[in-house]
Design brief:
With 118 residues, the chain is mainly α. 38% of the residues lie in helices and 9% in strands.
Length: 118
């Protein structure tokens, strides 16, 4: 079997400028757990999923448990901490989406797809 045998063909995409509130509503209305994020030219720029929406300031889940580094100063100003803050407080899809998306072509063997997902 190939990816084309099991893939969704009627894909709902979202814009990076869409609000977090609007994408949350869309996912709930459509009964889906995520959507590709495409720019104005239709290029894939990321993906937004339930996982991206879990750590939000509005619902009190903004800060994940992290192992403390030696210096609070480094922890406060480190790029990872900054990314987490933006992701948890962002208001647009571009702020919270996962940018490093792994893709396959439609004739990719389903075993390879499963290995990637694992």
């Amino acid at each position: 079997m190939r990816a084309m045998d099991v893939m969704t063909t009627d894909v709902i995409t979202v814009s990076p400028d869409m609000t977090v509130q609007d994408v949350t509503k869309l996912l709930a209305e459509k009964g889906i757990s995520g959507a590709p994020v495409c720019d104005a030219n239709g290029n894939l720029v990321g993906i937004v999923s339930e996982g991206d929406l879990l750590h939000r300031a509005e619902i009190g889940t903004a800060y994940r448990h992290r192992v403390r580094r030696r210096s609070w100063w480094l922890d406060h100003f480190a790029s990872e901490a900054a990314r987490e803050y933006i992701k948890s407080h962002g208001r647009r899809v571009a702020d919270i989406m996962t940018r490093d998306v792994v893709t396959v072509v439609e004739d990719t063997d389903l075993g390879n797809v499963a290995a990637l997902l694992d």
